[in-house]
Design goal:
The protein is α/β, with parallel strands linked by helices and 379 residues long. Helix content is 38%, strand content 15%.
C-alpha cells in the first residue's frame, strides 16, 4: 500500500468492541488480569497501552521498519535510542545538530563515560576521520538544524556496516514522507513527533523506529523501565496528525520552495539555506536520498542581529516561537533561541552566526507569507 493509505489505516483497525472507526483513547492506567497466572496483551499502561500500540505500529510502517516505540518527547526518544551504548563507547555526531541532542551528548552521556566527537562538516570523509576503535554509533541529523546540511545516509551506513558501527538518524525535519533512513541502510530512526508528525503544535512526543530485534529489545526495555512514555491522549493526537501527513508535507514544501526562491533574490538576504534550491551545495544529494525538500529553511541577513530583531518584531503572520512543523508559520533566531544555551564559542564552531533566522513555513497562502516577509525585511 502507498504512504497515505498506511497512515490512515495500518495499525489502526476499527475497535473490535464497539466498531469505532477511530482508535479510542484508552485512558486507563491498568487493565484487569485474567487470573494470577495469566494477563492479557495489556496489563499496565507504562508497559503498553492500546492507543500507544496503534501509534507505534503506524510509525514503524511509515518508516518501513519492524518496530516502533513512542516516547514523551523527542529528547526522551533520543535518550532511549542512545541506550544501545555503554560507558567507554564513542559516538561520532553531526556538527550541526539540535541543541537538545548536544546537551544529551555533553551533559548526560559524557559524565556517564560515553564520549562524542563532532564531524567538522557533513562529508562522509569528515565522519570517517573521527572514528576510533571505541566508536559504536554514528549520529546523523539530516537535514540538520538550523543550517539544513545533509549527510549521505547510504554512504555512512555502508561505512558503519564495514566497521561494525551503528547508524542512527534524526529524521524530524524530513519526516518519513520525504525520507526513510532505514531504506538507506540506517539502523535506528528518531523523531520528535511534536513537529511534523503531530503537525498542529498541540502535543509533545517522540519516537524510535528500528528493524533490528536486538536494538528494539534494548530500547523497549528502557521504555518500560524509565517510563518516559506519552499518555494515551498524546498518542491519539499524533495518530490524528499522521492521517494528513502527506498532504501537509507537500504544502509545507511548496510554500518553503516558493519563499526560498524569493528570499534568495532579496537584497537584504546574504544567503538562503534550503536543500531544494539548486544553489544548495548538497542539492544533488537531497534529490538522491529525499523525495522532497521539506518545509524548513534558514536565511542569513546582511544586517546582522539588528536586522534579525527588526524582522522578527515586524512580521504579522510568522510567529516568533520555538518549535516547528505546525500548520502555522514560525520564525526563530537559532543563536538566541534554539541554540541559546550553548556557549558563544560553541555556536561559532558550529557556524551558528547572529544573523541567522530559521523559518518553519506553514500552510498559509504562499503569497501572504511572501508579502509578510518582504514587508518585514523592508522595515
Amino acid at each position: 500500500m502507498q504512504f497515505e493509505t498506511i497512515a490512515i489505516h495500518d495499525g489502526q483497525a476499527p475497535d473490535p468492541h464497539t466498531g469505532s472507526v477511530t482508535v479510542p483513547v484508552y485512558q486507563t492506567s491498568t487493565f484487569e488480569r485474567e487470573d494470577l497466572e495469566h494477563h492479557r496483551d495489556f496489563f499496565y499502561s507504562r508497559i503498553g497501552n492500546p492507543t500507544r500500540k496503534a501509534l507505534e505500529s503506524t510509525l514503524a510502517l511509515l518508516e518501513n521498519g519492524r518496530f516502533g516505540l513512542a516516547f514523551a518527547s523527542g529528547v526522551a526518544a533520543t535518550m532511549a535510542a542512545l541506550q544501545v551504548l555503554k560507558p567507554g563507547d564513542h559516538v561520532v555526531a553531526s556538527n550541526d545538530i539540535y541543541g537538545g541532542s548536544y546537551r544529551i551528548f555533553e551533559q548526560l552521556l559524557r559524565p556517564w563515560g560515553v564520549t562524542t566527537t563532532y564531524a567538522e562538516n557533513e562529508t562522509t570523509e569528515s565522519y570517517a576521520s573521527c572514528i576510533t576503535p571505541a566508536t559504536k554509533l554514528i549520529w546523523l541529523e539530516t537535514p540538520s538544524n538550523p543550517l539544513l546540511q545533509l549527510s549521505d545516509i547510504t554512504a555512512l551506513s555502508e561505512l558503519g556496516k564495514r566497521q561494525g558501527i551503528l547508524v542512527a538518524v534524526d529524521n524530524t525535519f524530513a519526516s518519513p514522507y520525504f525520507q526513510r533512513p532505514l531504506d538507506l541502510g540506517a539502523d535506528i530512526v528518531v523523531h520528535s513527533t511534536t513537529k511534523y508528525l503531530g503537525g498542529h503544535s498541540d502535543v509533545i512526543g517522540g519516537a524510535v523506529i528500528t528493524s533490528n530485534p536486538a536494538l528494539h529489545t534494548i530500547i523497549k526495555n528502557y521504555q518500560a523501565a524509565a517510563g518516559a512514555i506519552p499518555a494515551p491522549w498524546e498518542c491519539w493526537l499524533i495518530l490524528r496528525g499522521l492521517k494528513t501527513l502527506k498532504i501537509r508535507m507537500k504544502e509545507h514544501e511548496a510554500n518553503a520552495l516558493h519563499l526560498a526562491g524569493v528570499l534568495e533574490q532579496h537584497p537584504a538576504v546574504e544567503r538562503v539555506f534550503y536543500p531544494g534550491l539548486p544553489s544548495h551545495p548538497q542539492h544533488e544529494l537531497a534529490k538522491q536520498q529525499m523525495s522532497g525538500f521539506g518545509g524548513m529553511l534558514t536565511i542569513a541577513l546582511k544586517g546582522g542581529l539588528p536586522a534579525v530583531k527588526t524582522l522578527t518584531a515586524n512580521l504579522k503572520l510568522f510567529i516568533l516561537a520555538d518549535s516547528l512543523g505546525g500548520v502555522e508559520s514560525l520564525i526563530a533566531s537559532p543563536p538566541k533561541m534554539t541554540l541559546g544555551a550553548l556557549s558563544t564559542e560553541e555556536r561559532r564552531r558550529r557556524r551558528c552566526t547572529d544573523n541567522l533566522v530559521r523559518l518553519s513555513v506553514g500552510l498559509e497562502n504562499a503569497e501572504d507569507l511572501e508579502l509578510d516577509l518582504i514587508n518585514g525585511l523592508a522595515m
